[in-house]
Design brief:
Blueprint lengths: L1 H36 L7 H25 L11 H26 L3 E6 L11 E6 L2 E15 L5 E12 L5 E12 L4 H21 L7 E4 L4 H12 L7 E6 L10 H21 L5 H8 L8 H9 L2 H19 L9 H6 L15 H4 L7 H18 L5 H22 L9 H16 L9 H21 L5 H24 L7
Length: 507
């Protein structure tokens, strides 16, 4: 049986290095061929460099590493399987991400042109060194982008994107990006004062901008910055297809920085770490024996799905929320956070837009999220509500409760914050907790054994989020309270329906 343990350790040790090296090599080759070399694929660069490698790393761990991790021991003295999962994803994904940034920086060539305006004649070229860069400061397009940041939206990241037309050119611009951070916990008048002071600072920087100091210029491809400049062009009605050149001040040969050293170090260090973790991992020999008899100790995909969402109702909700977020990422809107106008365009709840088909925003906003941390927090809350509520509710009721509570939350939001864009599933999730609490308060016998656990966990979740909402701007507590109140009412109605309905066999 000891040989079985050694076999598991060897397979576990080999799974991550092979996946890391294979993903880095194959993905980088495809990126070079389909994106950098030919331009056949024109996805947002953040998607190409970060999101796709991250998703593929998760998939490789799930398919090839997870079955080996499942054969390790449970318990405090055994392997921390979550830690193994996280480290495996990092060792596979991070080098691949760094490799794409290095690939982009290292594969380009520098073209010499006499005037920056001539870059329009070379659509396939990215990097240029121009003898003359003349800025026509009478033709400027500006796009401010303000986004909440931090775990609890405690910061406001302000980016001012300024596109300045080149002299003698109708569609070539130099793009300048000035950034500033404002404490979101300050009073509104102080935040407004800091914002206006930053705008004045941007005016001074623009007036002092000296193109002769640029080492080279880079033609922007699909990216967050390019989308901001395109919005600026639309605001000024410039029209047409414009080229935006980003100035670079470092030497062209130094554009890759220390990325090669980082890549080599992370790959070597990660693989050594994983080998050590694998050979010292405590193997569960009972699970190995079961696996050899054909009784796999790892769950199938269907079993994992059933345990995660416990039915088709929650599965639909998880699926739609994640698909909408994924679609926004693939559309090139970012990932860590989305801009306000993009949230409105994708169905965010906004009072001035509630007319005609715009009323559908009361529902669509329940599936749109402001960024990565927003959706992760809400999906955790939805899973938590599912675990306790679905055993006493049908799938159809669960789905209906989510939608009705979300509508209640959306209505409360537009009533109390008519000029604010509201998105996310949190109002609907608060409503699901309201239904659950109503069942408890009315004495549903099916929840008696877990009553204390439910009350403790729901109190922590609701109390924490409400307190954070009161202390932090940008969190819509009106939606939270509106969803919770709708959940209480709906829970009372559903409880009455259950207990007043005649049972089969009753006289």
């Amino acid at each position: 049986m000891k040989s079985g343990a050694h076999e598991v350790k060897w397979k576990l040790a080999a799974s991550v290095p092979v996946s890391a090296l294979g993903l880095s090599a194959i993905y980088s080759a495809l990126d070079w061929l389909l994106v950098e070399r030919t331009g056949w694929i024109a996805l947002d660069r953040d998607v190409i460099r970060f999101w796709l490698p991250s998703v593929l790393a998760l998939a490789l761990v799930f398919l090839f590493v997870s079955p080996r991790i499942a054969l390790l021991k449970e318990g405090r003295r055994g392997a921390a399987k979550t830690l193994y999962w996280a480290i495996a994803v990092a060792i596979i994904g991070v080098p691949t991400v760094i490799a794409q940034f290095y690939l982009h920086a290292a594969t380009g060539t520098l073209m010499h042109v006499s005037s920056a305006a001539e870059t329009a004649n070379h659509p396939g070229q990215t990097y240029f060194r121009a003898d003359s860069i003349c800025l026509d400061r009478t033709h400027i397009a500006v796009q401010p982008v303000v986004a909440a940041a931090g775990r609890h939206n405690e910061d406001l990241n302000v980016d001012i994107y300024i596109a300045v037309r080149l002299c003698g050119s109708g569609d070539v611009y130099v793009g300048l990006d000035y950034s500033h951070r404002i404490d979101n916990r300050l009073p509104s008048n102080e935040k407004e004062a800091q914002y206006r002071a930053f705008l004045k600072e941007c005016d001074k920087k623009l007036a002092a901008e000296n193109p002769s100091q640029y080492s080279y210029i880079e033609r922007l491809g699909p990216s967050t910055a390019l989308r901001a400049y395109e919005k600026a062009f639309a605001r000024e009605n410039f029209g047409g297809s414009s080229i935006v050149l980003a100035p670079r001040n470092e030497g062209f040969d130094q554009r890759a920085g220390n990325l090669p050293q980082w890549l080599e170090g992370l790959l070597a260090g990660g693989i050594l770490l994983w080998l050590g973790m694998s050979f010292f991992a405590p193997v569960d020999l009972r699970k190995v024996a079961q696996a050899r008899r054909g009784k796999s100790s790892s769950l199938s995909i269907n079993e994992i799905a059933q345990l995660s969402v416990a039915g088709w109702g929650p599965a639909i909700l998880f699926g739609v929320n994640i698909l909408v977020y994924g679609a926004m990422v693939l559309a090139g809107l970012g990932g860590i956070s989305f801009q306000i106008d993009d949230l409105i365009a994708w169905g965010g709840n906004y009072a001035p837009a509630l007319h005609g088909w715009g009323w559908s925003r009361l529902i669509s906003s329940q599936f749109v999220h402001g960024g990565l941390m927003h959706i992760l927090g809400n999906m955790y809350g939805l899973f938590f509500a599912t675990v306790f509520l679905l055993p006493v509710s049908s799938n159809s009721r669960f789905l209906l409760a989510y939608l009705l509570c979300g509508i209640g939350a959306s209505i409360a939001s537009v009533v109390y914050h008519p000029n604010t864009v509201s998105v996310g599933a949190s109002g609907a999730i608060f409503g699901l907790f309201g239904v659950l609490l109503t069942y408890l308060l009315l004495g549903d016998k099916r929840l008696i054994e877990v009553r204390g656990m439910i009350l403790l966990n729901v109190a922590i979740y609701l109390g924490y989020n409400l307190l954070i909402g009161m202390a932090t701007p940008g969190i819509d507590n009106a939606a939270h309270i509106g969803g919770l109140a709708t959940g209480f009412i709906l829970g009372f109605v559903l409880f009455l329906i259950d207990h007043l309905r005649p049972r089969k066999g009753a006289a």
